[in-house]
Design a protein that fits this description.
mainly alpha; elongated
Length: 118
């Protein structure tokens, strides 16, 4: 296995395949599914406000995406940009959560090894 393949596997493992990241991505995915289905059930003027929840679940990373949308389109960013930004923000934050989770698990494992060694 090459070094690049090893790095890609590590990033994938940290982003998707640990418990914390999987729960987070399921939460964001569920919020996006509910937001996408909302127009089928509600036709009021506030129906589009449901997209605030996926954006909030991906904050603070989505704050950068919103800033880019404001700078590029003056507050009228296309839907594809905002949805893509939510997905990208969720993946970035999932990677961060996976890294923190691995670090905490490593420390707990180190403590357990130290107590059994004494």
């Amino acid at each position: 296995m090459t070094n690049a393949t090893s790095r890609i596997r590590t990033l994938t493992r940290l982003t998707v395949t640990n418990r914390v990241s999987a729960v987070y991505l399921a939460l964001v995915g569920g919020a996006m599914a509910v937001a996408a289905a909302e127009p089928l059930f509600a036709t009021g003027p506030d129906a589009s406000l449901i997209w605030v929840w996926p954006a909030l679940f991906t904050f603070p990373a989505f704050g950068f995406v919103a800033w880019l949308g404001e700078a590029g389109w003056g507050g009228e960013a296309p839907t594809w940009f905002l949805i893509g930004g939510i997905v990208l923000s969720a993946l970035v934050q999932s990677l961060a959560l996976g890294a923190v989770w691995q670090t905490l698990r490593g420390r707990r494992g180190d403590r357990a090894r130290l107590t059994t060694a004494n």
